[in-house]
Design goal:
The protein is mostly helical. It has 2 domains: 91 residues, no CATH class; 60 residues, no CATH class. It has 10 helices and no strands.
Length: 185
């Protein structure tokens, strides 16, 4: 689609161009519990160097994105990104109790996980205004400010909007053994 001249917005946002992300996630969810391809999963579970290489690749691609260009990113980058993320997830899940991975269970990161949907929603409207207000600062400080504002807004949203709805979920759930819908007589 990129070569055919489809708009950047369509390539980045459309379901047909990004469905591979969902499908690789589904594939992982099915294959990992089934221990399909045990040699591959064992290799990924033991290969710290491979996972570090994948993480470094993400950082390098993100840092040098302007130099890499959208063409390479949207043709090759987005094709290899989902399997790379799946490899990292396999490693994390296989090594969850080890010190090198256990830090992911820390309270601050659990909080980020709890408010992550809000971060996803709000970053789109927070990013540009915060960066514009702080344009006089170095880029790294602008990005840090965007992250802090996004986490703050998402935390407030979680506390005052999401959590009350989550509490309703328990009150509206039928008691165990009682059907959700009344049976017709």
């Amino acid at each position: 689609m990129y070569i055919a001249g489809v708009s950047d917005e369509w390539i980045y946002n459309s379901f047909d161009c990004r469905v591979d992300l969902l499908l690789v996630g589904c594939l992982g969810a099915v294959l990992m519990p089934a221990r399909a391809w045990p040699k591959l999963f064992d290799l990924l579970a033991r290969s710290r160097a491979l996972v570090i290489g994948l993480v470094v690749s993400f950082v390098v691609i993100g840092w040098f994105r302007p130099e890499i260009g959208d063409g390479l990113l949207w043709t090759v980058g987005h094709a290899i990104e989902p399997p790379m993320v799946l490899c990292i997830l396999v490693y994390i899940m296989a090594n969850a109790t080890r010190p090198g991975v256990r830090w992911l269970e820390s309270a601050p990161l659990r909080h980020i996980g709890k408010v992550s949907y809000g971060i996803y929603l709000f970053h789109q409207v927070i990013h540009a205004p915060v960066r514009a207000k702080l344009a006089f600062l170095p880029e790294v400080l602008q990005v840090l400010a965007v992250v802090l504002v996004c986490v703050g807004v998402a935390s407030l949203s979680y506390a005052f909007y999401e959590r009350p709805f989550l509490k309703l979920k328990d009150r509206l759930r039928p008691p165990p053994g009682k059907p959700l819908v009344r049976e017709q007589a």
